[in-house]
Amino acid sequence: MAVGNVRNRYQTAGHDHLFTFWSTLEESERESLSRQLENLDVNRVNRIYKKAIASEKEAADPEPIEPLPVGACESIVNDPASEKRWRSEGLQAIARGEVGVLLMAGGQGTRLGSSAPKGCYDIGLPSHKSLFQYQAERIARLQVVAEKECNKPAGSVVMPWYVMTSGPTRRETEAFFTKNKFFGLNSKNVVFFEQGTLPCLTAEGKIMLESTSRVAVAPDGNGGLYAATRAPLSKSNNSTVLSDLTDRGVLYVHAYCVDNCLVKVADPVFLGYCISKQADCAAKVVPKASPSESVGVVARRGEKFSVVEYSEISKEQAELRNSKTGELAFNAANIANHFYTTSYLKSVESFEDDLAFHIARKKIPTVDLKTGEAVKPSKPNGMKLELFVFDVFPFTKRFAVLEVARNEEFSPLKNAPGTGADDPETSRRDLLAQHKRFLERAGAQVKDGVEIELSPCVSYAGEGLEFVKGKTFTRSGYVENPEELDALL
Fold it and tell me: Which residues of 384-403 are buried (b: 16+ CB within 10 A; e: fewer)?
């Protein structure tokens, strides 16, 4: 598109100030700014801003918050019969090639003291495997389990893995996978795509400049995955995540965040539950650890399902209990673990303009439009706009919620080493404790103080360990193959 046409578009949209320094720019700078502006949908930015401002005003008088109604959430805790039934249904879908996996992995490990993508992080296990490797090996093992239990030929079951990166993490993430030979997965079945960005805006909704030749942008939140699934995978590949899902015949997608070391990737129980409920979209939840836990909960806002942030719940509401069960009324802690049908993901575009982005007022480095000098603000001078992955819940016609055990499925990595909560040490502790339970449930004894790490290639969720029955493990170690367990007796 000619520069004149681009400028006319921005002038019409009220953002002609972005060309303030055009006459002073070098040719390369002009090309860079022109390319950035050409790729930006300025009218969409205006719509998002207006909707976000209106929504923020409406939030001053919010709809009443209510706990999930009776029957809206089912649980696998202490219900082995349902768990077995749903697991079988989920494995059948996996065996038919109907399941894909979507990983939200755009974050860096900044809080952990690392600039690398969070999925590259080593939580200190005996194997020193990264989060990415653990999740890849769970996919590989689950494919084998589905083949065996559904009588499929070896190597015939494939679950494509869609890895959402961000601008700062894409190159390093792809390089990490390549260096590690995709952790044993076929590279054709690992698809990288990129979370989108949005321009930073002034309080009046004007797009901000980072420099005289560059617009200030920020990631559009983990809810940006919906738009990202429609965007070309790369400059050289016009395919999209949605087109790839369709081409592969994938009907169901499991989506999750990279920082949970206990995540059951493509959990067949969750898949089977959602398929049996004919859900379009669903959330996996865990019981809150305490009334004051700083976590959003799946609840009802008015007549619609929603995630209610802990800051929106009063102390009285947080402590309210169900008179029959004694459990917290607002108990369904959201863990960013979701199910979608592919058709639902395709439908999000039809109501995307109704989704309200959240405003985060920040200190944003910019330039003085009069002098062109760099400005490093000491207080918030602009806004970043984010969509959350759960913002689609209120627009879902058939929504489902499944409760699972926290100690089996949720141990997030959020904080720096030594923090004492949600840090590398607690992640390591929780994963090794789970492996101990796997062995004990299979009939083995593990001596106090003994730590045994089981590769996901040995067992996805405790299956395939029948041979340890009656054995006592007295030595710590890491096991990559079942035969190696005898060395730890």
Answer: bbbbbbbbbbbbbeebbbbb
pLDDT of amino acid 108: 79
**Joined tokens for residue 240:** 């999209």
CA distance 154 to 172: 32
Name the nearest CA neighbour of 72 among 406, 409, 402, 309: 402
Beta strands in 233-331 (DSSP E): 252-257, 281-287, 297-301, 304-308
pTM above 0.70, yes or no: yes
Q: How far apart are CA 299 and CA 401, in angstroms?
A: 10
Dihedral sign from CA coordinates of 209, 174, 229, 267: negative
| Structure tokens, 11 | 């002038």
Q: For residues 391 and 83, what is the distance between their CA atoms, to the nearest angstrom? A: 28
The set of residues, in sequence order, having a beta carbon less than 8 Å from that of 220 and lying 6+ positions away, is 195, 196, 197, 198, 227, 357, 385, 386, 387
Residues of the chain with pLDDT under 70: 1
In a 13 Å sphere around the CA of 61, the CA atoms on its Cβ side amount to 3
Cβ atoms of 212 and 367 within 8 Å: the answer is yes
With 0-12 CB in 10 A as exposed, 13-18 as middle and 19+ as buried, what is 70?
exposed
Q: Decide: 390 and 381 in contact? Cβ < 8 Å.
A: no
Amino acid, res. 305: F
The 3-class secondary structure across 446-486, one letter per residue, is ECCCCCEEECCCCCCCCCCCHHHCCCEECCCEEECCHHHHH
Instruction: Give φ, ψ of 122 to 5 degrees.
Output: -105, 115
- Under 8 Å CB-to-CB from 422, ≥6 apart: which residues? 411, 412, 413, 414, 415
Size of the chain, expressed as the number of residues it contains: 489
For residues 208 and 368, the answer to whether their CB atoms sit within 8 Å is no
Residue 34 dihedral angles phi and psi, to the nearest 5°: -60, -40
pLDDT at position 370 is 94
Packing angle of the helix pair 80-95, 268-276 (nearest 10 deg): 90
Residues 258, 279: Cα–Cα separation, whole Å: 24
d(CA 276, CA 339): 13
Burial category of 61 from C-beta neighbours within 10 Å (exposed 0-12, middle 13-18, buried 19 and up):
exposed
